[in-house]
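QA checklist item 7 of 12: single-chain prediction sanity check.
[x] sequence parsed
[x] length recorded as 366
[x] structure emitted
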Amino acid sequence: MNAGTFQSLRTSLPTAAILVAAVAIVYVGTLLTGSALLTQFVTRMYIYLVVVVGLQVFMGNTNILWFPHVGYMGIGAYVSAICSMTPLQKTLSLTHLYPALADLQIPFVPALLVGAVTAAIIAGLVGFPLMRLSDFPVVITSFALLVIINVVLTHWNAITNGPQTFFGVDQFTDLKTSAIWASLVVVAACVFRESKVGLQLRASRDDPVSAGAIGINTIKVRWIALVLSAFIAGLGGGLFAHFITSFTPKAFFLTETFVILAMLVIGGPATVTGAVAGTLIVTLIYQGLRWVENTINMTQAFGGNIAGLTDTTLSVILIVLLTKRPAGLVARREISWVLLTKPFLRKAAPFHSEQPVNGPSARSEI
């Protein structure tokens, strides 16, 4: 292990340890409550955490607003589901499936990895030309790529069952499984951020001209981050598919894109800590708003059903918060033991004042 690798691990692993500890605390707390509803809620939150941290790997380190991420999540969901389904279930759910895939069945974890690798390969092939773009062109083309992915998922009947519901997926994703994968992804994102490629990527983000002058290949480092980001999105999609067990291409389009982007932007796209914090906060807000909206509709409190309360309120919160903190809740600095213990150190440190006979008063902090 060279000095650079050792230094990157020394910088990234403490942050990863704190964030994984937070994931573990939520996991243990959920187990102790024994609530089935809370278990479902936290499991979904962990799946969102995987997807949001994957988006942070690319968007947070490049400062590029990236839309196709949820599309890669959809690719991972469909591919992993097809790989893990039984042949009998495929004959019932996918009547037009290709014969070469009809008898294919592999265990859950390999199927999850196959879906993630497929998403990464597609992202690497299709996204490479886009790595040359910046500013508005890359945003428009990335949104166009999301639309293309959605159109393919919607109309490829043999693979996705078209616009109809894809069903018959076994529920392999539980609280423990989602927590483990969320922890692994957080560690991977932290290590990548402080790696050589991650440092070069942020250097090209902050000052492209100077980065190019010292030999950083901006296109290459962006492409590496894109492939890793899509791989993690594919993992999240596979976890999602094996948790919800039935879905349509609409689950990987605009609404989901908005929620995932809101989680990252509110938390702070520049840091993995921000991605974790944003996922937790927005999940609580979003699910709470959905509960309020459903309660109002069930009780007919306003004499009729209301629609769009959840998305509208979340949008207002996003606008207000970003007006006050444009960089998100965690702007630049990752969480560390020093930041956690700093308030306690300040309280423990006494102040000694001494005033010389001839001269201004002086105060020293020990």
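[x] summary fact logged: The first strand starts at residue 351 and ends at 354.
[ ] second reviewer sign-off
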